[in-house]
Design a protein that fits this description.
By secondary structure, the chain is of the alpha+beta class. It has 3 helices and 6 strands, in the order ααββαββββ. Helices cover about 30% and strands about 45% of the residues.
């Protein structure tokens, strides 16, 4: 059996986020998936993780992660790049595109993403 490369799994997860493919994301998440957003809020479990991604894709329909570099140490992967999207303008306000430098900590276990943690400046005001 071929050895599983945690770095490839983390980058595949990013690709599915960029495609907004909830089914593919669910297939890559461990049942006990843990997601931690920039504010430190945790979401636990695959189903809740999918619900959080669905909400994120609705809130930011053009969300995109660009990975510029990554480091792997065993099953822990650090990703470095940017997150971008467009926030809705609201009544009388223009839509505004944003880009923020971002880092992610990803833990891969048994060929699945077990943890996804985001580190970035606070999200632009809504």
């Amino acid at each position: 059996m071929a050895e599983i490369d945690p770095g490839r799994i983390a980058l595949r997860f990013v690709n599915e986020i960029n495609r907004h493919d909830l089914e593919a994301l669910a297939g890559l998440m461990s049942p006990d998936f843990r997601r931690v957003d920039t504010s430190g809020k945790e979401t636990l479990g695959r189903d809740r993780g999918c619900a959080a991604w669905a909400k994120e894709f609705t809130r930011t329909p053009d969300l995109r992660l660009a990975i510029h570099d990554h480091l792997c140490q065993g099953s822990v992967i650090a990703l470095f790049g940017t997150a971008s999207g467009t926030r809705p303008g609201g009544v009388g306000l223009p839509r505004e595109h944003w880009v923020v430098p971002t880092a992610w900590r990803v833990v891969v276990r048994d060929a699945h993403v077990a943890e996804w943690q985001v580190f970035s400046p606070p999200e632009p005001d809504r």
